[in-house]
Amino acid sequence: MDDRFTVMRKRLSMMVSAISATSLLVLVVLAAPLYALPENPAGSDRADVYRQMGATNAKLKVIGGEVQRAMADLSRKEEEIGDNAAKLNNAKVKLAHLRSTYNKRLVQIYRAGSVAPLRVFLNVTDFSELLVATRMLVIIGEYDARLVKQIARLESEIKMRQARLQVAAIQQKRLVNTLELTKQNLVRVLMKQRNIIAQLPQGNAFATPSSTTTASGFIFPVAPPYTYVDSWGAPRMRGTRYEHAHEGTDIMALPWTNALAVEDGTISKMGNNTLGGISLWLSGDTGNEYYYAHLYGYADGLEVGQHVKAGQVIGYVGDTGNANGTPHLHFEIHPHGGVPIDPYSFLLAMDPMVHTPISTN
Fold it and tell me: Between vectors from CA 278 to CA 221 and to CA 288, what angle results, nearest 5°?
């Protein structure tokens, strides 16, 4: 049996290096049933533990979605506030300019006195010049009237935008509170799941993630407990110069949860950047590349050029970069080092919580 799996793994690894991203996903899905899953424990106590795991995992999925929605709602509100604040500032600049212009006009009119229009008419020599002078006075009068109207309109707009900002600030505070409460609920359920996993016998697939490697050599990149949803393409950092579409899956977990090598490969890059924070790249032996972001740190002794095995601890889940106080692993897949693909289906195929019987019991 071991020889058969060894041969199968070698063949599959060779196939992966030559197939497309779609074929890669099919490969992992086909290999998923070969997970070294824990046997259903004998006895009602252990069966109850597995039922608790299944129920808690379902809760994690729901709460994970709630966290993502709360983050999206807050992001939209922050974008709205930013846009309104920018328009308010623009209106204030325009108002200051118009007021300055209008004040200068008032000074000019005052200095000229009431006889200024009369001088215009006295200086004309024929009827054509009279028409031109009259039209000029009308234009100047209309200009002054427009200044007054524009000033009034901008003053009204500024009041309106200030009121909107006050309301939005209250809404933003509520959304922040909602997000914090949802994240606290997520942490509670994650801790509950961790305690449930601790009741399982040593060597089970959840307490020892490296035992969940598929025949193709892939493994879920975060040690349990965790949760994730498909957030591919979701807007991020709206209204900022870093605005972008999400090109990965956020796997939410407890702080300092082990981040694991998804397959055998080499650490090709380690660094720290504005968006991803402490991050690394893993170049898999299959030719695919994986990006791990928002880490708190790396495994002791990890360095660029080091070869790692599937399931080996390479870092720790954190909230560095733009993770906004929400510890999670931002995970990307770049088939053959090219553009990223949505990793959600790939993760589902590797997730032991999906393929173990506890999910249906």
Answer: 45
